[in-house]
Amino acid sequence: MTQKTFFIRAEACTGCEICRLTCSLVKEKAVNPSRARIAVERLVMDGLMLPHVCLNCKNPPCRAACRRHAIVKDEATGWVTINRERCNNCALCVAACPYAAIVTAADGEVLLCDVCGGSPACVEMCPTGAIRFAERDKGVAGPTDTAAVDIFKTE
Predict the structure, then answer these.
(1) CA–CA separation, 66 vs 149, rounded Å?
(2) How does pLDDT run across 54-88, given as a tens digit for each residue?
(3) Number of other residues whose CB lies within 10 A of the CB of residue 81
(4) What is the dihedral of CA 144, 149, 151, 155, to 10 degrees?
(5) Within a domain: residue 41?
(6) Each residue of 100-140: pLDDT tens digit?
(7) Domain span at 129
(8) Based on the structure, what is the number of domains in the chain?
(9) pTM for this one?
(10) CATH number of the CATH domain containing 108
(11) Is 147 part of any domain?
């Protein structure tokens, strides 16, 4: 099975937050961006908006930080998720994530993208293509690697 992950192009993000609205609607059955598994940060100095979503690192620092072994990586898909039965919302994973992709809801619950079972709704709804979900070998392989731009080229 070919592993897929997210690719982000901050220069294409308008900050509309449709991704957050969609995520909360799909996951919570209500429009509640504070419960979305994706965040959008405004980089004032750069004039960019930057979506933060789990990049499914090959060696996730969040998993290493989790003392309860609640962060799980599926070896077949490469997706990183939270085992809700083990998680006590201590937020050590939040601090360990180099991409600020793990969010804490207002009630203290730690939330992490589960890629909507392989068809991320945020990607489908992004009007500018700032968020893509593609084969891992096209780019991001871990925390220190950089994303390839070839999947964004138009023929």
Answers:
(1) 32
(2) 999 989 999 999 999 999 999 999 999 999 999 99
(3) 17
(4) -170
(5) yes
(6) 999 999 999 999 999 999 999 999 999 999 999 998 876 54
(7) 4-133
(8) 1
(9) 0.83
(10) 3.30.70.20
(11) no
